[in-house]
């Protein structure tokens, strides 16, 4: 074969290599452009940075000065690519001419490679420089956006805190007062504030309730003695009443009347306190027979268990949020912590706390925290569970107003949506705000001038309804923020 033939082949091979290098370079250049373009997504997405619940994709630009290292890494790859392509070409007939061609080709390739690397280096340095400018601008934008977001977030938190710490009062609406001469020892409001019950002596008066106005629609006379407790169910159209020895389950029938569904007999004296669990398949009752009874429902309600650790009347009961602990208080100056066992579901007394005076009211306000009211005291106490030994101990006292005391009825209530604790103490109804920092502030102490005082508050905290023997009226007070 002639010298011109080999020269032509060398030129063809060189042209092929040039095309391959150009293609590789274009791909590499496009990759660099994609890195630059990725900074745009930072500005568009950074507005989410103030909110940790959102995952913001971020590009790591800590190693932007990687050009020299990249050059060192791609140079042997380029050489290897050239050698591989030469290796797989068909060998010429004459070895000497083949070696000559290879030497010429390698020299051309090296010169071309050198030029291309210089070009790549110059362009990469320019791109890195441009990227640094973009990154500086991006950081500046992020800083501005971060400060703006934090400012908005701070304003939001401040607004929420102001709402949480908003002062309030319950204002008497005199036009809605109802004259009631007979003592009303229990009052309850249903979940949507459409029905009010009042235990007036042996009778239960049912009122239709519309924006504060109460209209009597029915009188229930099944109890033989004074009604002491009333509790609406929230999942069904039923309520429960407690009196002397008996508990009655009431249901709303097709004729729009409340009728007796079942009577529970088990206590042998007065029932002073009664609570329901969230599932409404457990009733817990306590009274002057010194017992706490646990009633469960399958086809009908039956007494599952009786706790007899109190040695005097049981005045107060409360379930924690997890529904696995009950706290009780009573006239024996004892507080019982009763826990449900996981295996056999039996309720076991796990702690007894002795205090100085009779305890009238108790209420869980958190899963492992309850508040206690002792007879005639101008303070209420907070008990919290120690995380190590799992025992409840008193951690603080809250100053309230009281006056003369002696009645255990009118159970305490905690309105979670408003963080309001209602505690009847003697002649006063104290309304206490639980703050986010764990502090408690008595916002209002309503003085009724008598301790013969009973009532209840709606689940949303909008209405407080009371009866006392001084005015002998069922009175309505409405929540009002100041």
Descriptive overview:
- By secondary structure, this protein is of the alpha+beta class.
- The protein has a domain at 3-45 and 64-145.
- The protein has 4 helices and 28 strands.
- A 7-stranded antiparallel β-sheet has the order 7-8-9-10-11-12-13, with no helix packed on it. Strands 1, 2, 26, 27 and 28 form a 5-stranded antiparallel β-sheet that branches. A 4-stranded antiparallel β-sheet has the order 3-4-5-6, with no helix packed on it.
- Strand 23 (420-425) and strand 24 (428-434) form a beta hairpin.
- Helix 1 (3-37) runs parallel beside helix 4 and helix 3 (67-87) packs antiparallel against helix 4 (95-164).
Q: Counting H and I runs of at least 4 residues, what is the number of helices? A: 4
Structural class from helices and strands? Answer: alpha+beta
Question: End-to-end span in angstroms?
Answer: 106 Å
**How are the strands of the largest sheet arranged?**
7-8-9-10-11-12-13
**How much beta, percentage-wise?**
35-45%
Number of strands: 28
- Major pleated sheet: 7 strands, antiparallel
Helix proportion of residues, in percent?
A: 25-40%
Q: Looking at the chains present, what oligomeric state does this protein adopt?
A: single chain
The value of Rg in angstroms is 41 Å
- The outline comes out as elongated
> Which residue ranges are poorly predicted, with pLDDT under 50 across at least 5 consecutive positions?
38-67, 89-102, 153-163
Could you tell me the mean pLDDT?
A: 79
Coiled coil: 110-137
WD repeats: 264-295
Organism: Paramecium pentaurelia
Protein name: WD40-repeat-containing domain
């Amino acid at each position: 074969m002639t010298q011109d033939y080999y020269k032509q082949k060398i030129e063809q091979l060189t042209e092929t290599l040039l095309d391959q290098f150009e293609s590789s370079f274009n791909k590499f250049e496009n990759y660099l452009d994609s890195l630059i373009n990725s900074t745009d997504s930072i500005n568009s997405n950074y507005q989410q940075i103030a909110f940790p619940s959102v995952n913001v994709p971020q590009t790591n630009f800590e190693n932007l000065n990687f050009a020299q290292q990249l050059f060192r890494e791609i140079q042997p790859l380029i050489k290897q690519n050239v050698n591989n392509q030469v290796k797989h070409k068909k060998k010429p007939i004459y070895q000497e001419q083949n070696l000559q061609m290879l030497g010429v080709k390698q020299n051309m390739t090296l010169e071309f490679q050198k030029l291309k690397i210089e070009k790549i280096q110059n362009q990469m340095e320019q791109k890195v420089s441009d990227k640094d400018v973009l990154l500086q601008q991006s950081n500046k934008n992020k800083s501005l956006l971060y400060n703006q977001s934090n400012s908005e977030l701070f304003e939001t938190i401040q607004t929420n805190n102001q709402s949480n710490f908003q002062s309030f009062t319950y204002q008497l609406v005199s036009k809605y007062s109802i004259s009631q001469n007979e003592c009303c020892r229990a009052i309850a409001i249903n979940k949507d504030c459409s029905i009010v019950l009042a235990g007036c002596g042996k009778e239960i008066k049912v009122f239709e309730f519309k924006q504060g106005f109460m209209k009597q629609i029915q009188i229930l006379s099944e109890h033989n003695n004074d009604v002491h407790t009333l509790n609406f169910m929230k999942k069904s159209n039923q309520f429960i009443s407690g009196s002397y020895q008996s508990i009655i389950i009431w249901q709303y029938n097709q004729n729009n009347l409340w009728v007796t569904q079942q009577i529970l007999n088990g206590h042998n004296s007065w029932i002073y306190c009664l609570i329901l669990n969230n599932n409404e398949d457990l009733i817990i009752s306590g009274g002057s027979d010194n017992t706490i009874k646990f009633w469960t429902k399958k086809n009908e309600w039956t007494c599952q268990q009786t706790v007899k650790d109190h040695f005097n009347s049981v005045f107060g009961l409360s379930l924690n949020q997890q529904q696995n602990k009950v706290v009780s208080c009573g006239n024996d100056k004892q507080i019982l912590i009763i826990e449900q066992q996981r295996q056999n579901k039996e309720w076991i007394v796990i702690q007894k706390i002795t205090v100085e005076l009779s305890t009238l009211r108790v209420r869980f306000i958190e899963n492992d925290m309850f508040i206690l009211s002792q007879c005639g005291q101008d303070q209420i106490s907070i008990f919290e569970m120690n995380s190590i030994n799992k025992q409840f101990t008193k951690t603080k006292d809250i100053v309230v107003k009281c006056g003369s005391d002696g009645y255990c009825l009118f159970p305490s209530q905690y309105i979670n949506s408003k963080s309001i604790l209602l505690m009847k103490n003697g002649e006063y109804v104290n309304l206490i705000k639980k703050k986010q920092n764990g502090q408690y502030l008595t916002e209002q102490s309503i003085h009724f001038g008598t301790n013969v005082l009973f009532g209840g508050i709606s689940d949303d905290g909008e209405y407080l309804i009371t009866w006392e023997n001084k005015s002998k009226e069922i009175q309505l007070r409405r929540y009002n923020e100041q």
